[in-house]
Amino acid sequence: PSETQKLQDKVQLLKKEKNAVVLAHYYQEPAIKQVADFVGDSLELAKRAAQSQAEIIVFAGVHFMAETAKILNPQRKVLLPDLNAGCSLADSCEPKSFKKFIQQHPEHVVVTYINCSAEIKTMSDFVCTSSNAEKVINSIPMDKEIIFAPDKNLGDYLIQKTGREMLLWDGSCMVHEAFSIDKLLDLHKKYPSARIIAHPESERHILRAASYIGSTSGLIQHIAESDWNTFIVATEAGILYDMQKHFPDKTIIPAPAKENNSCACSECAYMKMNSLEKLYSCLKHETPEIILEQDIMKKAALPINRMLELSN
Ligand code: 13P
Ligand code: SF4
Questions:
Q1: Which CATH architecture has domain 176-254?
Q2: Where does [4Fe-4S] cluster bind (predicted)?
Q3: Which residues of the chain form CATH 3.40.50.10800?
């Protein structure tokens, strides 16, 4: 067996010994997803974490996802292989400035995308993910004004979809803003029978070129249900592994990134901070662990649970 295989076997043994589960996001590297008990989008991962009976949850994703898992199931020990695995969207919404912003608009309902810190969640009325954001917005009475944070691109998309005016926070995902519309259209000319599909964190011009827009699981589901054979995918490149695995007969092409990007496709450097080695070590030593104050967990749980009630 290869070194990777040997390490994966050790992880599987430790999982049994310690009654642990590994929850992984699609953007994680294949070696991690292969040892995961569940691979999914943000909403599915949050639900799995909430229901987990395991003693330890190793969260192979980024910090806000592991925090959400801890908030929804505080009795479990939640581990994150690399505590520095952050998110540019979460970083763009600093609590002090956000507090000021919402204080300037006290009558507004505050909806935050799950890609934010636990502290931001404590200031929110509703949390949402890309797979239920429309539902959450539509559940708010028409006479209420809405603040949406931190993703201005998802916010702009939701304004168009729901017809609701919303005050947007000026945050964005550096990975989804790295796509080049010119290169994308050139690529589409090369593959005219391809469907462009995109994550709603992408900019408006990219979304306009897409024939389907959805969360990571939504994108996979769309390919499953579609009769088309070729897809150009505008989201983080890690998901291509899952698409190719589930649909080996389909042609899956990553949407091209702008010139100055480090790879020809788009990769999330934060997601890629986790590695199989770090995952093994964190499970073995039971650190780094997500620790949150009781008060923050209690307050942040309210808007997340409101979202979960709407998603059932
Ligand atoms: P999903 O909820 O669609 O998996 O999105 C998570 C994310 O971070 C996208 O960049
Ligand atoms: Fe955050 Fe973007 Fe990475 Fe998703 S892809 S975790 S939104 S930086």
A1: 3-Layer(aba) Sandwich (3.40)
A2: 87, 173, 268
A3: 3-85+271-291, 89-173+298-311, 176-254
Give the ligand at the shortest distance from the Cα of 269.
Answer: 2
Q: What is the three-class DSSP state of 229?
A: coil
Distance between CA atoms of residues 84 and 274, nearest Å:
9
pLDDT above 90: percentage of residues in the chain: 96
Tokens coding 151? 């993703």
H helix count then E strand count, the chain: 15, 12
Binding site for [4Fe-4S] cluster, by residue number, is 87, 173, 268
* Domain 3-85+271-291, CATH homologous superfamily name and number: NadA-like (3.40.50.10800)
pTM, 2 dp: 0.97
Mutate to test the pocket of ligand 1, among 62, 199, 272 (most ligand atoms within 8 A of CB): 199
Task: Tell me if 41 CB under 6 Å of ligand 1.
Answer: yes
Does ligand 1 come within 6 angstroms of the Cβ of 115? yes
Query: How large is the ipTM?
Result: 0.98
